Amino acid sequence: MTRSGIVLAGIAVLDIVHIIDHWPAEEKLAFIDRTEHAAGGPPHNAGAGLLKLGAPFPVTFLATAGGDAYGEAMLASARSYGLDTSRVSIVPGVVTSHTHVMSCADTGRRTFFAQLGVNNHMTVEHLLPPADSNAKLYYLGSPGVARGLDESDGWRTLLRAARERGMKTCLELCPVPADVLRKFVPPCLPLCDVFVVNDYEAGSITGIEVARGSQLDWSAAEAACRKLLDMGVCELAGVHHPDGAVAVRRNGEVVKRPSVRVEQREIAGSVGAGDAFYAGVLFGIHEDWPLEKCLDLGNAAAATSLRSPTTSASIRPWTECLAFAQQRGLRSFSG
Q1: How far apart are CA 78 and CA 185, in angstroms?
Q2: 334 in a domain, yes or no?
């Protein structure tokens, strides 16, 4: 049986993105230039990214929402990207999870203030792969921000269920405190086929400092990937950073690819860039591309996502992403 499609499951939120002129000190003032609303959370962002890239396979979105105005706005935003929200479970009487994202215009960096809401009430049953699914990949996110699943071993249960149904499993994270990552993520790794994280997450889980200052340490990133494989990741471990990405397969293949050149003045916001990167990698993995091309599309998708303050609005079809990367060129590479 030939499998096709990706099931994306886990936390979904309404991102309320404020573009601020700078990050203020405590009790000081910063100005909000504008505010945009968009659905967010790893499954939504990666799913929307896959559709923006032009995925020629089914994309299934599993999540929860409250029966409130936040939920209505989140689902409307998800549908605007083409996502089918019919499998999103509505939990009445609970506020939809939402995040105030402060995106600094002067640096492109962002800070998150989250109301976990309905995600704390999410159960395994909400996120199980559909019984009739023939999907090739099951993507799940994110441990540490959904109390019910965190406290019940739900993440491992879901990864195990997906593998029992013949799917390859992929895990995504959110930027929660390092001690939370160290508590909830390592037990999941032996049930995870593909694990791609940013430099902060990689360092928190492995104890290996992947970035020194603002620069990626390419050798350390490779060492972190190898450590993640030693910790149980089954097939592929990857680390991404604004400078580029490193991935290591269990068969010994190592690929290092620099990121696309993007001028600071072109960056409207970096929220969702990591999810855009993962979407590009998932696209390539699903299509059985060489690992180098998977990372190149991930970097290109992330670069195009930077042109919008929201997570996925500016991502282009995959051929255009790769053409954009070729036109702009790649960063200098010393890996």
Answers
A1: 27
A2: no
3-state secondary structure 10-63: ECCEEEEEEEECCCCCCCCCCCEEEEEEEEECHHHHHHHHHHHHCCCCCEEEEC
pLDDT on residue 309: 66
CA 208 to chain centroid, in Å, comes to 21
Single-letter amino acid code for the residue at 250:
R
The CA distance from 309 to 171, in Å, is: 24
Q: What is the CATH number of the domain that holds 223?
A: 3.40.1190.20
Alpha-carbon distance of 111 to 17, in angstroms, equals 10
123: nearest Cα among 158, 82, 80: 158
Give the three-state DSSP class for 66.
strand
Neighbours of 251 (CB within 10 A): 7
Which pLDDT band, with edges at 50, 70 and 90, does 269 fall under?
Answer: low
Confidence of residue 311 (pLDDT cuts 50, 70, 90): low
C-alpha–C-alpha distance, residues 237 and 235, integer Å: 7
* Average pLDDT score over the chain: 93
Residue in 283, 331, 334 with CA at minimum distance from that of residue 54: 283
Quote the domain boundaries for residue 315. 6-12+40-94+119-328
Contact by Cβ (8 Å): 119, 143: no
Task: Identify the band that residue 274 occupies on the pLDDT scale cut at 50, 70 and 90.
Answer: confident
Question: How far is the C-alpha of 217 from the C-alpha of 213, rounded, in Å?
Answer: 10
Residue 122 zone, left/alpha/beta (φ > 0; ψ -120 to 50; rest): beta
Whose CA is closest to 8, among 158, 197, 202, 188? 158
Spatial distance between the Cα atoms of 132 and 134, rounded to a whole number of angstroms:
7
DSSP one-letter string for 188-247: GGGG-SEEEEEHHHHHHHH----EETTEE-HHHHHHHHHHHHHTT--SEEEEEETTEEEE
- In a domain, residue 291? The reply is yes
Check if the beta carbon of residue 170 is closer than 8 Å to that of residue 139. Answer: yes
Instruction: Tell me if 104 is assigned to some domain.
Output: no
pLDDT over threshold 80, residue 334 = no
